[in-house]
Design goal:
The protein is α+β, with helices and mostly antiparallel strands. About 25% of the residues lie in helices and about 30% in strands. It has helices spanning about 40, 55-70, 85-95, 110-115, 150-160; strands at about 1-5, 10, 25-30, 35, 45-50, 75-80, 100-105, 115-120, 125, 125-130, 135-140.
Length: about 160
């Protein structure tokens, strides 16, 4: 699959998960040291927000918008993933005064499992996944232009429809 980054075509490595199928297995530690995995998400509807770099305006906006739209909805777990370091993600949360589940994918294992690695820029493709309580993929959006925002409303509505 290909996306563009500021108009430049970029190949995404790997195969993205299929709607209706179990999400790929993954296991990452959040900024508080808790392990978040496919298994730990089960029992809640999950929105997995994936972005290239928290220190850019679009990624900042994506994280804040999903936090505002979904963090207070009972039964929905919001998880954000990027290749930023644990320290960068912690600093962003502290600067914004937000408590967000942030998963640093430093080794690229999440990106590999979900088919989101952009090796040319060493980032993850901007994307959103909504996962059922049973761990099945219900919604996905791989944003065609990495520098643009995802469809927040569609993702949140897809999550609400599963409650």
């Amino acid at each position: 699959m290909e996306v563009t980054f500021k108009g430049e075509p970029m190949k995404i490595e790997g195969i993205q998960p299929t709607i209706g199928e179990p999400i790929p297995a993954f296991s990452l530690k959040d900024t508080a040291g808790n392990v978040i995995s496919r298994e730990s998400l089960k029992g809640n509807v999950a929105i997995i927000s994936v972005f290239p770099d928290i220190n850019t305006s679009v990624c900042d906006k994506q994280t804040r918008n999903f936090n505002e739209a979904a963090s207070d909805i009972e039964g929905i777990q919001l998880v954000s993933v990027s290749k930023n370091s644990q320290d960068e993600l912690k600093e962003w949360c502290a600067a914004k005064g937000l408590e967000v589940v942030m998963l640093p994918d430093n080794e690229g294992t999440f990106g590999e499992a979900f088919g989101l690695n952009l090796p040319k820029i060493n980032k993850l493709a901007r994307s959103v996944f909504v996962v059922t309580q049973e761990g099945l993929l219900a919604y996905k959006e791989i944003v065609p232009e990495v520098a643009e925002e995802p469809n927040y409303e569609a993702a949140v509505e897809a999550a609400k429809d599963l409650l």
